[in-house]
Design goal:
The chain has one domain. It contains 6 helices and 4 strands; from the N terminus they run ααββααααββ. Strand 1 and strand 2 form a beta hairpin. The longest helix is centred in the N-terminal third of the chain and has 28 residues. The two termini are 38 Å apart.
Length: 180
């Protein structure tokens, strides 16, 4: 599997976009400045650009992660197939409110219904995409899960007979020898 160092750079950009969007929106000049309509402030636009940019970066992280997991000799290709539909589903679900914060002043009630339906359809399509991907790759995912050890800590074994010991056992249930 390739290097994952790119993830740090993306995470830094994501955090910077969120922090800048929130921080700039709190400046007095941004709160007092309106655009086109008194209900749309520069603060709302700054939040939209910061949070929307962070959402795009989050989706890009998902896309690149999925690509890398599907890479040659990765052994995680089935898992990689799920990352893009999942990140798309998250981005659309969160993006609804982010985009609405800027569009709300311009949307008539009938247009708001159209906006809602567009997101309902897009989120539903993403969910269906994820379920279909899960269905198509279920066997590979089950095999991948079987290969993962159930616990991080190695199982304890009796030094005398080799039987598996529970983490709190003071004596071996098989041979009765005291544990270390």
């Amino acid at each position: 599997m390739g290097s994952w160092t790119w993830l740090g750079r993306y995470a830094l950009i994501l955090l910077a976009a969120i922090a800048l969007g929130a921080g700039i929106a709190e400046l007095t000049v941004f709160k007092q400045t309106t655009l086109w309509t008194p209900r749309l402030t520069a603060a709302a636009l700054a939040r939209f650009l910061g949070y929307g940019g962070a959402l795009v970066i989050l989706w890009m992280i998902g896309e690149r992660t999925g690509r890398q997991l599907r890479g040659p000799a990765a052994g995680t290709a089935h898992l990689g197939i799920l990352v893009l539909p999942l990140s798309t589903l998250v981005a659309l679900s969160v993006g609804y409110d982010i985009l609405l914060a800027v569009l709300r002043p311009f949307l008539a009630p009938s247009m708001k219904d159209g906006y809602n339906w567009a997101f309902v359809l897009a989120i539903t399509a993403s969910a269906v995409w994820l379920v279909v991907a899960l269905y198509r790759h279920a066997e590979g995912l089950i095999e991948l899960l079987r290969a993962v050890p159930m616990s991080v800590r190695p199982a304890r074994q009796c030094a005398s007979c080799g039987a598996r010991l529970s983490s709190k056992a003071k004596f071996c249930a098989t041979c009765g020898k005291a544990t270390d």
